[in-house]
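Journal club prep — side note

Before the paper discussion, L.F. wants everyone to see what a predicted structure for a comparable chain looks like in token form. Sequence:
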Amino acid sequence: MHVRFHRHLILLALTAAALLLAPPAPSQERPQIRGGERGQPRERSPADDEPASAQPVPGVPESVEKLFQEIDEAALKEPFKREYKVFEGSTQKTPLLRADPKLLENKFAALIELNSTFRLNVDFRSPDRAQAQVEIQSLQRGFGAARSAIPKAESRILRDGDWLFGWHFGYRAESRSTRDSRSTRNRDPHSDYFKLLGEFCPRDRLPAQPMLDFLTGSDADRDVQWRVGGGDEGDRWELTVFAPTAKAAEERAAAILRLVDEGLCRSLQRDCLAEGRKALDAAHKVHDELVKLSQSSGELGAKLRKPSEISSEVLKELKSQKVMTDIELAGLTARVNACTAMLSKPKELSESAIETIGDMKVRAEIDRLGVKEKLDRINALVTEGNERELMQGKVLELYARSENLRREMDGHSRSAADYVRLLPFFAPLELKDNAIKVVPIEWTNN
């Protein structure tokens, strides 16, 4: 009995050594998988070896960058140089709207008329009308964004200036008769509006202190008349500035021009440029993040392009085989353990039974070694497949994130362009005939 038992042990050892040392046959390199063509490794292409940075990520459109390059920022920082002439006109009869001794002290008036210099110059019958419509939409977006994003822009623009600046885009919602009925009155006192413009006017460009005191005091509410006029090229501001002397009338009108130039137009231009710069910087920052995502996605893609037999269908089948192989291995292990338990009590067994059980144990040990090798290989392939699936999911995640960032970058780029296109829109206003007209006045009762 002991000879036979030793013989079984030697046979088991030789068989195990043969399994471990013998090279696997071609059919044994992989577990039997019915994956069809999807399970076969594909041929590599030259693109597989290209670095992740071979395809650059599109950045901010060149047209947007060009808009900023064409801006003369130095000129925007300098005081606006307005050249105008002063001439005297004939006596003008002026209705006395209320009996005010202070008002009667004024013997002269300075007349100025201001209008936007911006013109769309769009012929919607031309072949370029589609591009013109794009530019108009850009101005509309920028105009709306500026009114909400720039500090107090709404208050600065809306000194009946929604008609002066916004007539190009249909902001004149009220009828002509309605506007005419309100053209000689304003929402707030003139002095409040002049104070607002003073807040945004650089300190070294404010009018002389006596003129600033006049414009921001109650005297301006009495001695300045502000009317919104209309015309074929848009609305305009018509101001009449009363004063006791011709010189004072001219100085007061010139002070108003200074506040409008520096506290309204130039300040809005600088603010629009600053907002545009912020949007452009944000677009560049998003582009940098896109480049990093592209590199990560390229590295994962290079790994996924390596030959592999593990498709989604194959991985599903491998997982099923793993379950069945686990069960098979558990059964063989149970058989070996049972044989071992019976052989541990040889006195209860006959010699032939011991030989039979010993043979069963050897066969079970051999089968278990083979199944264990198969299971290890299946586990390795499942691990490989799981890793590929994780990488594929990560690539899809990076792609979705990249698409969101592209849309974000496009939005920032569009906002940057919208703001920059507003610079000529808010350019210093045109003074009619480049002249301040000073006239003597004659007060009348009607």
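L.F.'s comment for the group: The first helix runs from residue 2 to 21. Keep this in mind when we get to the figures.
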